[in-house]
Structures are given as C-alpha cells and as structure tokens.
Design goal:
The protein is built from 9 helices and 10 strands. It is an alpha/beta fold.
Length: 237
C-alpha cells in the first residue's frame, strides 16, 4: 500500500529523517513509535508532501507520490488525522464532516458517508448541530477521525490519536481504529502510547532521532511481542 524507501528529510541544514524505510501493507494497522522529537510527525508531513524529501522514494499502491502536491496525494486516497485534532471549532459537527467529504461530488455518497459516520460515532449523531469547539477532547478526536473518513480514504494516517485523552477514552478510540481497519481501511498509526499501539498493530517500527532502529513486519525478524517487551522495558528504564 504505502512504502517509504530510504527517505531523508531536512529542515534547512538540520537532518530530521535519515534513510527511513517502512511499509504499511494493505489491510493492516502499522504503528510508528517513538518519543517526542523522534521524527514521527515529520514522517507524516513528508508522506503528505508538506515537507519535500531530500532523497528516497515514497509510493502509494506502486505509484510514486513524492513530489506531488498535497491535494493530489489526498485525492489519491490518503487522509490524515493530525496531532491535536485541528477540527474547525466554530463550525458544527455536521459542517466539519461535510468539509471532510468536500472532494466528493456525488451528494448521495456524501449522505451515505454521513450515515456511516453517525453509526460509527453515535455521539456525533447526537451532537451534529453542536459547535465542535464546545465538545470534550474525546468527542473532538472522534470528529477528527470521522472527518478524515468522509473522503473514503484507502490509507488513514493517525498522528497521536490518544494524546491528552483519559484512559477510558483511549480504549474507545483504539477500538474504533480496529473497527475502521476491519472494514477495509489501511492504517498508519503514529503513537507514543506504545502498549496500546502495539496491542492492535500487525507491524511496528521504532524511530529514534529520525532513524528506524527496530522493526517487525510480522513475517521476519523480531515479533511484535519482542518489540513490545524491548520497547516498554526501555521506556520503563
């Protein structure tokens, strides 16, 4: 589905990503773990074309997308839930969702997608006319995910979806991610919450200082369980 091959990215003279290679396979949840400043968000920005890589190849379903405009990458089937949610706080839930489906011209598809989102997130249905900025953090995260799904993406990029949420809401958000994946959407999950991310992922990559230092693809090398043990032991230490 999505491949990064030896991708390097800089902000001016500062190297942020160094020869990053990862593969988010179709139909799977792939997680990218790392502490603050590891380069995880820059990875997402590079995939989306918001930051241009210095070198390397990025492909989506076999088609090179590095160098494309962000709008064209989104049209190719990529959607993102950014860190901090970034909903439109002065608009209603309904208006936020409509913006998420703005690339779809068929009104029947838009209405069908709205129904799917309200079924997946019943609280959004209850609050569809509420101003988004007045909702709780967990509800805003649900809205951010639903808004991204309104475009029928092939690949969903999630940047720190658990950030700032209470444990009970984190469980709910991760249950929803699993459900979204089971319904056919490939997921690349960027997270600091290693335990939760690893518990739902098919493959995992660990990033430190802009480099992939450990990985499990589910086929060879170390297992998800070995990554979980090593990474969580390091975090605890």
């Amino acid at each position: 589905m999505l491949k990064l091959e030896a991708v390097s990215t800089s902000y001016g003279p500062i190297k942020v990503l160094r020869n990053v290679s990862l593969h988010a396979k179709k139909g799977e949840i792939t997680c990218l773990l790392g502490s603050n400043g590891a380069g995880k968000t820059t990875t997402i920005k590079t995939i989306l074309g918001l930051v241009k890589p210095n070198s390397g190849i990025i492909t989506l379903e076999g088609r090179q997308i590095q160098g494309l405009k962000t709008a064209d990458i989104i049209k190719a089937g990529v959607a993102v839930v950014p860190e901090g949610r970034r909903i439109f706080p002065k608009m209603t839930v309904y208006e936020n969702l409509l913006l998420g489906g703005s690339l779809i011209k068929d009104k029947n598809i838009i209405q069908s997608n709205l129904k799917k989102m309200y079924d997946l997130f019943p609280r959004l249905a209850e609050r569809k006319n509420q101003i988004a900025g007045t909702m709780s953090g967990g509800e805003q995260q649900m809205l951010a995910i639903a808004r991204a799904l309104m475009s029928n993406p092939k690949l969903l990029l999630l940047d720190e979806p658990s950030l700032g949420l209470a444990p009970i809401l984190i469980k709910e958000i991760f249950d929803i991610i699993v459900q979204i994946n089971k319904e056919g959407t490939t997921v690349l999950l960027i997270e600091q919450n290693a335990f939760k991310a690893l518990s739902i992922s098919h493959a995992a990559y660990i990033m430190q200082k802009g480099e992939i230092v450990q990985q499990s693809t589910g086929q060879e090398g170390i297992s998800i369980e070995e990554i979980k043990a090593a990474y969580l032991k390091k975090q605890a230490g």
